[in-house]
Each structure stands twice: as C-alpha cells, then as structure tokens.
C-alpha cells in the first residue's frame, strides 16, 4: 500500500502522524494515499538534510529590491530557509495579511510581540507610512514604537503628526529594528499593521516563512489555504515494478524511457533527462496502477541528488538564478504543481525493494521583468517511502475541494475556470487567430509557441520595472506584453471591471494568475501578439529579409525592439540579443515539426453553410449519423499525454473530414480554438443546454449563426489533444446565450442522459 513508513532508525523519516494524507480510489478500486494539502503545512515538512547557501551579487540585490542570499546547515528547518520571495509566484503569499494568517491558524495576535514579524524590523518610519498610508494621519503619540524611536534618536518628545515627521529625511529613514527592542511592543502598537498585506512592506520577500509570526503563524498555514492555493487533485499514480541499485548503469537504448529530469525554462515543464550511458544509474522502473500496460509501463525514474553524490544531478533553472548552486539540481519529477517543488527518488534498496522519495525546493524571484528560478537544490526533504508493488504519485491535477476556507472560494472559482478549456483565438476575430501563415510564410502558431517557450505561459507575470525611456510596468502573459502598452491597456479595460483592474496594475500591483486570466485572457493576448507580429513581419519582408533570418529578427525585435546581432542583453544573466534570435529559430523549427501536416492548415472560420431556423426540438440526435461511441463520460485512465483523466463528454469514432451535424437547433456562440479541444464549435440551444463539438478540421457556420437540427456545422479531425481522429461531444447544463462560452458555472453531464448511442 502506498504510504509513509515510520522507520525509528532514521529520525528524518516522515510517518502518517506528521504527514497528513488523503485517500483516493483508483480505477481498480484500490485505495491510494497522497499528501492532503488542506492540512499539510511548511512547518510539517522534514528538515533539509544537506547544507547549502545562496549568494547574490550586489547588482542583483539592487534590481530585486531585497537580498535573497542565505545559508543553512544540515537538518535546518524548512521555514527558516525558504523566503517569501521564493513562494510568491507559486502561492501568492504576498497577498496575505497578519489578520488573514491568524484567521487560518487560529492564532491570537494579542499575545504575539512585534518582534515575531520579521519584516517590520527592516522598515523605516517612511517605509511604514508608505505601506500603511493612514498611519501618517495619526499623532506620533498614538504610535508608541515610532514615538519611542524618534524620542530616543532626537533626545526629546515630539507632538506632531507622523506625516510631518517623515518630511524630515533623517527621521524618515530610521530603521525601527536597529533602535528598539521590538519584543516589548505588541502587534497592535502600530495601527493598521495586521490588516496590511505582506507585499505592501519594503523588502517583504526577504523574510523567511517562520519570520512571519513564528512557527504558529505562516508556518502553520495549510498549502491549500494560500491566496493561490496548492490544491488536492485527482492524482495519477503508478506502481513500483522494479527497484535497481547503484550497480545499474545508463543505457543509450533506454534514453526515451525516463520521466525524471530537469526544469529549464519559464514554462516550468519537466524535460526528461536520461542517465548517461555506462555511468552508474540507480533507478526505479514503473508500471501502470492497474494491470494493463499503459503510458507508465516500463518508464524509469532515476535516483536524483542536487550534489550528484547519491544520484543524478541535472542542469536546470532559468534567468540569473540559474547560476545558483552551479546550475545543478536534482533529477526528479514536478508532481504537485511545479512551483511547489520537485519530487526525487533519493534512495533505492534492492535487497528490501524499498524506495525513498524526497522533496527539493528552489529559490525564485522577479528580475528585470522576468521570473527567474534556481535549480531544485534546497533539500533533500524526506517526503515518504514506498516499495515494489506499491503506489507512487507521478502527477496531480488541481481540482478544488469543498473544505477550502470560505474566504478563498472566489479565488478558487477563478482557479477552477483556468482548469477548464480556455479560448485560444478570437473566436472568429479578424486578427487574433494563431492559425495559418502571414507574409514571409511565417506560421503564427509555431512563432507563438517558440516565443512562449522563452517567455512563459498565459498566466505568467513579470517583475515591475522601468525602461530607459521612463516607461514603467511589468510583462504580462504568454508573450510578456508590457502593461504600459496602449493596446494592453485598451484590451484589459474592455473586460468587465477591467478599468479598475488596469488602474491597480498600472500602479505596480502584481496580479494573481487567476486575475490575469480573467482580465487579460488568452484570446486577448494572442490578438495583440498577432497584430504586433504582422506589423514587424511587413517591415522586415519589405527589406527583403526571409527564412531563418526573418525568424531571428522577429525574436530580436520582440526582445529588444531592434533587429540586430548585438551582444547586448535585455537583462543581466539573460541571453544576448543575437542569442535570443537564434534560440527562437530553433524553437520555431521544433514547433513546426510538432505541427507536422497541420502546419499549413488554417482554423479560420469558413463561409456559412446556409442559414438555419435556430429552433430547438428539445431532443438530441447523434451529430455523426450513428458513429459508435469509443470513450464514455466520467473517470478514466488518461489515454494520452495531456488527455484528461475525467472525461467531460463522449468520443465518437469517425474519420478525418466526416461531416458533423448540430445535435439540435440553436445559436452558435463560439467557433474557434481552445486549449485541449483544438478547433471547437459551441451551440446554445435556448433551453439551458449547450453542446460542444471538438477536435474539428473546420467550420461551416460562424459565431452568431442560427442552426437547425441535423444541419452540417463542421468537419471532424484530430486537432487539439487526443489519440487520433474522433469527435468529442459534450452536453452542458445551466447555459444561456448571454454567458461566456466557457463559463465555469456550466455543468458537464453525461450525454447519454439525453441521447442513447
């Protein structure tokens, strides 16, 4: 049984009494245990087993605004080592306030001294007024720490408003922690302190986790209760089939079998790295969780170590932080969300068939508009033990649970929406599709994928900064479009509530991933990217630039604004302008190869296939004239990489080019592409029901068209994520034409509730 063994001989081993677990049932009806993030906290993690350090050059510290340097000894507490800046992107910790932390942990703040809040000790009086603006309106006598500080330094009592005090530069720049014993003051001695978000304070990222109210504070917040929570999900598990020790060596013929590897780019995807041929390589061999060979059958997970002393180390990380620890991290698999950590098999024992699995963490920050992360080298942190024929978790999909604290339900609803297929192109807009080619035979889909592999994903947020022209902002999304761009401003402000949101981000606010997707959705990002690239392509082709030279120039212009083979860099530690262009050429070619025969296709909407009456009969017909059902609705073993483990529709076996008919009359509310779906058509039937037709080749109707039952609306294909040609067909309840096509309140139901196949 997959579990957490208690080995008295090893004090670091985690057992069920300290590692909260949650039971899942797999398809074979077997119980599988996995960490329960509604209970697991940083304070529960085992100590860090190996010493280490991070040393950041002064120029980096100046740009970051805080110093992430640190060192730790063997068996150091995780909360003492990990800084808030490391987990901000993953968990959104900066949005928490002391009051919110106290609500979650049931901590009585009246009993906590000011010294327990590490951040406040580094604040000057001026910093505190910036963080808590209302503080400036108070008389200095109303805020005892400030009163005592000023009196101690100046030698006398003051009777002024604090806003007057901070006009004196010498007084405004006094660090509170250097002059006062903060253990003698309570948290409420500074009004507004406990209600102010952590990110409002200067250099807040430099604080450790335990530096925020000690072991009873942030260290005790469950990983599912952060503003961007780490959620329990439907786990994908395998079984340990064989355990191999240090006598094993790498095999060049098995290089494609590894699932363990490195994280090398801002996309944060694990790239498998095989063991080197003829080099020692202990590993475990996997099999699928049920006795049917599938995607995990025969796959290898190599023993990993950030030092290389007990397992394989890999080059990883990106941006300036990639230089930390010499660029070496432990080979492993990012399982429970990449930003949380990487799991590594850290020990195998052939004689007992036992396997030790540990967690490695990393340091991350925002530097020169870009997220930068070190290798996964902070560890190992013992996580659990397993053995042959028992389970091992290899992946987890974030699905919200009902027992998440009520105050975060809105945020979780937004997060859940991200897990639904998202609109990718403009749904028939004239300039937003990523399909087809432009002048110079540039394939927009390949170009977008190539730049995304360098810049990030749709929810990526860059660091705040200013360029040489005085434009200040941060990069947003898949292409790191700057907030100060007029087209970005216009696009965001078109969204409901967008004006207020843009006002916040233009003033420096760092949005959550959910907020970014809500106000700057993938469709908008793609529209702006395509429009900008069309302009660049036209300029360059008029100059006679073509082929790889054109791709390189497009990359250089996106990176620096100019097509030049300069050795200059956009940020310290980043590629040169010349290198960026060559990196894009390579990424573009790889993307074209992946698209294969579809590289020349267009998913632009075809001309209408004739007007229908839009009348709903209330009864559905098979949209592919009697085609057989090849995959049912509900839980299933994921049939391919990227395929869902919960099937929200049914699959109908058809060939490429098969005509697809409207299952009932209604109005076309979407005809475009969406993540996972490929080309997808959505019809609202006016009776609370919606049908979706996915993996299409093309459309014969446009958005807004009225269609009749049985009318030809599209042709089937194998676009998107899937196992081959078929029609994915869904029925969703709670629909109406005024809702967004992918509104999260739409409930997927088994189509056989309405129609027998």
What does it look like?
The protein has 757 residues and is of the alpha+beta class. The chain is 21% helix and 21% strand. The strands form 12 sheets. Strands 24, 27, 28, 29, 30, 31, 32, 33, 34 and 35 form a 10-stranded antiparallel sheet that branches. The protein has a 4-stranded antiparallel sheet with strand order 9-8-5-17, with no helix packed on it. A 3-stranded antiparallel sheet has the order 12-13-16, with no helix packed on it. The protein is globular and about 90 Å long. The protein starts with 20 loop residues before the first strand and ends in an 8-residue tail after the last strand.
Question: What brief labels describe this structure?
Answer:
single chain, 757 residues, alpha+beta, 10-stranded antiparallel beta sheet, 18 helices, 21% strand, globular, disordered N terminus
């Amino acid at each position: 049984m997959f579990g957490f063994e208690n080995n008295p001989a090893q004090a670091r081993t985690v057992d069920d009494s300290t590692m909260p677990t949650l039971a899942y049932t797999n398809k074979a009806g077997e119980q599988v245990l996995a960490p329960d993030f509604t209970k697991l906290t940083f304070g529960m993690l085992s100590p860090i087993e190996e010493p280490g350090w991070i040393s950041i050059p002064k120029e980096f510290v100046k740009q970051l605004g805080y110093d992430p340097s640190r060192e730790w000894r063997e068996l150091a507490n995780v909360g003492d080592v990990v800084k808030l800046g490391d987990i901000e992107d993953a968990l959104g910790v900066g949005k928490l306030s002391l009051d919110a932390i106290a609500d979650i942990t049931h901590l009585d703040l009246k009993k906590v001294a000011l010294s327990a809040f590490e951040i406040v000790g580094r604040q000057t009086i001026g910093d505190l007024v910036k963080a808590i603006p209302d503080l400036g309106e108070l008389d200095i006598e109303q805020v005892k720490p400030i009163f005592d500080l000023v009196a101690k330094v100046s030698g006398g009592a003051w009777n002024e408003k604090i806003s007057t005090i901070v006009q004196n530069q010498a007084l405004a720049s006094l660090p509170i922690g250097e002059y006062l014993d903060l253990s003698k003051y309570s948290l409420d001695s500074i009004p507004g302190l406990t209600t102010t978000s952590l990110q409002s304070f200067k250099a807040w990222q430099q604080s450790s986790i335990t530096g925020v109210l000690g072991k009873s504070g942030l260290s005790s917040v469950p990983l599912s209760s952060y503003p961007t929570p780490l959620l329990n999900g439907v786990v994908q598990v395998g079984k340990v089939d064989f355990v191999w020790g240090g006598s094993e060596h790498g095999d060049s013929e098995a290089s494609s079998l590894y699932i363990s590897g490195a994280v090398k780019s801002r996309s944060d995807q694990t790239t498998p790295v095989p063991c080197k041929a003829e080099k020692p390589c202990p590993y475990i061999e996997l099999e699928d969780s049920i006795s049917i060979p599938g995607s995990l059958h025969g796959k290898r997970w190599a023993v990993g170590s950030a030092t290389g002393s007990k397992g394989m180390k890999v080059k990883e990380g990106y941006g300036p932080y990639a230089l930390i620890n010499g660029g070496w991290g432990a080979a492993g698999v990012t399982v429970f969300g990449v930003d949380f950590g990487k799991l590594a098999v850290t020990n195998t024992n052939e004689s007992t068939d036992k396997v030790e699995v540990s967690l490695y963490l990393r340091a991350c920050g925002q530097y020169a508009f870009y997220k930068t992360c070190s290798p996964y080298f902070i560890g190992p942190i013992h996580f659990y033990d397993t053995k042959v024929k028992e389970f091992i978790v290899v992946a987890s999909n974030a699905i919200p649970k009902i027992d998440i604290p009520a105050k975060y339900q809105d945020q979780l609803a937004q997060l859940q929406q991200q897990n639904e297929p998202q609109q990718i192109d403009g749904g028939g807009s004239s300039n937003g599709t990523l399909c087809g080619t432009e002048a110079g035979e540039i394939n927009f889909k390949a170009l977008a994928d190539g730049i995304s592999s360098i810049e990030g994903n749709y929810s990526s947020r860059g660091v705040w900064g200013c360029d040489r022209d005085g434009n200040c902002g941060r990069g947003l999304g898949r292409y790191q479009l700057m907030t100060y761009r007029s087209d970005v401003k216009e696009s965001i402000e078109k969204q409901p509530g967008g004006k207020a949101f843009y006002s916040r981000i233009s003033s420096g606010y760092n949005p959550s991933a959910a907020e970014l997707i809500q106000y700057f959705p993938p469709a908008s990002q793609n529209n702006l990217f395509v429009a900008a690239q069309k302009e660049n392509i036209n300029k360059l082709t008029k100059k006679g630039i073509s082929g790889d030279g054109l791709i390189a120039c497009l990359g250089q212009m996106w990176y620096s604004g100019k097509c030049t083979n300069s050795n200059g860099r956009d940020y310290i530690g980043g590629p040169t302008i010349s290198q960026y262009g060559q990196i894009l050429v390579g990424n573009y070619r790889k993307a074209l190869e992946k698209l294969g025969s579809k590289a020349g296709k267009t998913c632009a909407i075809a001309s209408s296939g004739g007007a229908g009456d839009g009348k709903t009969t209330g009864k559905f017909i098979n949209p592919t004239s009697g085609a057989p059902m090849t995959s049912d609705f509900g839980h299933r073993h994921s049939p391919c990489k990227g395929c869902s483990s919960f099937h929200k529709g049914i699959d109908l076996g058809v060939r490429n080019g098969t005509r697809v008919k409207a299952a009932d009359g209604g109005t076309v509310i979407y005809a475009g592409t969406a993540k996972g779906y490929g080309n997808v058509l959505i019809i609202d039937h006016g009776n609370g029901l919606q049908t979706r037709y996915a993996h299409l080749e093309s459309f014969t109707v446009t958005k807004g068209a009225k269609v009749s039952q049985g009318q030809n609306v599209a042709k089937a294909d194998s676009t998107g994520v899937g196992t081959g040609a078929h029609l994915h067909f869904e029925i969703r309840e709670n629909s109406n034409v005024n809702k967004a096509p992918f509104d999260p309140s739409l409930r997927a139901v088994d189509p056989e509730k309405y129609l027998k196949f």
